[in-house]
Amino acid sequence: MPLRSDWSSATCAIARSLQSVGDPWTLLILREAFVGTTRYEQFRDNLGIADNVLSRRLAAMVENDLLRKSPYRGEQRTHEEYLLTEAGADLYPVLSALGRWGAKHTPPPANGRRIRAIHLTCGRAARSVDYCTFCQVPLTSADVAWHRLWLDEEPTPLATASGE
Amino acid sequence: MPLRSDWSSATCAIARSLQSVGDPWTLLILREAFVGTTRYEQFRDNLGIADNVLSRRLAAMVENDLLRKSPYRGEQRTHEEYLLTEAGADLYPVLSALGRWGAKHTPPPANGRRIRAIHLTCGRAARSVDYCTFCQVPLTSADVAWHRLWLDEEPTPLATASGE
After folding, report:
1. Which of A114, B96, B97, B155 has the smallest number of CB atoms closer than 10 Å to its CB?
2. Which of B87, B90, B93 shows the shortest CA–CA distance to B129?
């Protein structure tokens, strides 16, 4: 018996999504991609994830068209980096919804640190998952910055889909 | 080594959320709860989920305060039903975001069936995860109906948090 069900042809769009993103590490890798992480070693170090788990997840995310691999020239040789596709960037509302729920319904971290999602156009904190209620426009990762209040003077604009 | 990491005290609110809801079955059980499923046998039959998996997930969801157990009087004896808590009902935007992404980025099902989220107040299809862009009000599960276009004449209002 497989460890997981196959929901790729489910009638329900929620179930079909979970086929690609129904895994916590996949969503945390996406979170890293949104704040600009692109290289294998950066994902590994930032997430504290085991090599075999990270390799498998990144391969599946490329296979599922959430990330794409792109070569870059390192000091010694050419490496690969992982960039958000359009489908990957469109998962911003899923992360936004999870973050908003966690901020409301889980105990705050002992260090008191918190993040605000800022609409770049107006500079206001987002009050909805994917819509600026002030400007009355949709919010995508191209329009949003995450302000890590304990770390950054300025909010960090999120990464968005990279062209080929 | 545990099968999963413990993110319950992570700085990141997304990671803390994934501690409770970073599992596909948990999110599909929630989907069922939103359309009115409350009994063990209904969850099992509607989801095609194995008994041991369902029992473990329901227990964890009660433990994590997403569902609460409530007795009801059956024909022969008293049974338990599972009702959404406030924290459970507040996960509506997570399901909404997953559904919207799946509708856009996964192949539609062979049967062509699709669901629309309708704002009960205005009767219009939602264009944002958690905000009615027409009425300019937030959308919660108390304000939304899912219209299963192939099945129902009328949209089904979603369940919301049950009082004690």
Report:
1. A114
2. B93
Contact call for residues B149 and B114 (beta carbons, < 8 A): yes
Residue A5, classed as helix, strand or coil, is coil
Instruction: Please give the full DSSP string across A11-35, using - where no structure is assigned.
Output: S-HHHHHHHHH-SHHHHHHHHHHHT
B35 contacts B99 by C-beta, under 8 angstroms: no
| Cβ pair B96:A99 closer than 8 A | no
Task: Tell if the CB–CB gap between A115 and B12 is shorter than 8 Å.
Answer: yes
Q: Which of A4, A16, A135, A141 to mutate to test the interface with B (most CBs of B within 10 A)?
A: A16
Shortest Cα distance from B12 to chain A (angstroms)?
7
pTM as predicted: 0.95
Query: Contact at 8 Å (CB) between B29 and B84?
Result: no
Contact A116, A103 (CB under 8 A): no
Instruction: Tell me whether residues A97 and B129 touch, CB distance under 8 A.
Output: yes
pLDDT in tens, B117-149: 999 999 999 999 999 999 999 999 999 999 988
Q: Which domains does chain B have, with CATH numbers?
A: 13-88 (1.10.10.10), 92-157 (no CATH)
Assess: ipTM above 0.90: yes
pLDDT tens, position by position, B53-88: 999 999 999 999 999 999 988 788 888 999 999 999
Cβ of A54: how many Cβ atoms within 10 Å? 17
* A62 to chain B, closest Cα gap in Å: 14
